[in-house]
Amino acid sequence: MTMPVISPSILNCNIARLEDELTKISSADIAHVDVMDNHFVPNLTWGLPVVEACVRTGIMPIDAHLMIADPDRWAPAYAEVGCASVTFHAEAAGAPIRTAREIRHFGARAALALKPSTDIAPYIDLLPEFDMILVMTVEPGFGGQSFLDTMLPKIRRTREAIDASALDLSIQVDGGVSRSTIEQAAEAGATNFVAGSAIFRAEDAYEEIATLRSLAHSHMH
Ligand code: DX5
Ligand code: ZN
After folding, report:
1. Is position 174 annotated as part of the catalytic site?
2. Any idea what the CATH number is for the domain that residue 86 is in?
3. 166 CA from centroid of ligand 2 (Å)
4. 65 within ligand 1 shell (Cβ under 6 A)
5. What are residue 137's phi and psi, to 5 degrees?
6. Among all ligands shown, which has an atom nearest to the Cα of 198?
7. What percent of the chain has pLDDT over 90?
8. Read out DSSP for 188-208?
9. Domain range spanning residue 206?
């Protein structure tokens, strides 16, 4: 049986204390680092040097979520600096197959992200090029938004397509994942769970990670 992957988003952490913040969540599987360019999404965070600094701490593997225009140009470098996983958006990529292959060439897992209004159907034939599909469960750009349960059918369709192809891709959900929404996402077929505010606003991040992990685990197939 697949084990859940818990990926805390450091979007709203104290960036001046990066090592402390990563240590706070180091019981999780991987840290989710959101790169926003103020073009693809209406918010600006950080770029390659900060993501590389996260990798260099060596505290835990890094999952880079690129909410940027022109990922064909920028995404492979995130793999080259040592991210374990690099996710770029279908809506922004001009050559998703080439970009995914370049990411894999540098030894990272390649992932394709879908905004809420983007369907999985046009990307089914591309599944062999990827290790993970990210089904966004909020409009990308900000932490602290509510989980869109209207995305559950898309998670199910993605799960069915992956199972039908006999491939081994993870399905990640990102946005509004918490104690009250993680079970539905797991039930629908998600295996990898990003949680920002649920973990960083919790009194005890380790305890929250453990709770999310066990809720997800008991609802996964
Ligand atoms: C939103 C980001 C998310 C965000 C999730 O565009 O991609 O990773 O940090 O934050 P929460 O869990 O608070 O919705
Ligand atoms: Zn994200």
Report:
1. yes
2. 3.20.20.70
3. 27
4. yes
5. -110, 15
6. 1
7. 99
8. HT--EEEESHHHHTSS-HHHH
9. 5-219
Rounded to the nearest integer, the mean pLDDT of the chain is 98
Q: State how many domains the chain has.
A: 1
- For 130, other C-beta atoms within 10 Å of its C-beta total 23
Q: Per-residue pLDDT averaged across 46-56, rounded?
A: 98
Q: Is the CB of 197 under 6 A from ligand 1?
A: yes
Dihedral (CA of 199, 205, 208, 210) sign: positive
Nearest to 108 by CA among 168, 47, 62, 170: 62
Residue in 20, 29, 34, 131 annotated catalytic: 34
119 is catalytic: no
Which residue out of 119, 149, 174, 204 is catalytically annotated?
174
The pTM score is: 0.98
Kindly report, residue by residue over 68-126, the tens digit of the pLDDT.
999 999 999 999 999 999 999 999 999 999 999 999 999 999 999 999 999 999 999 99
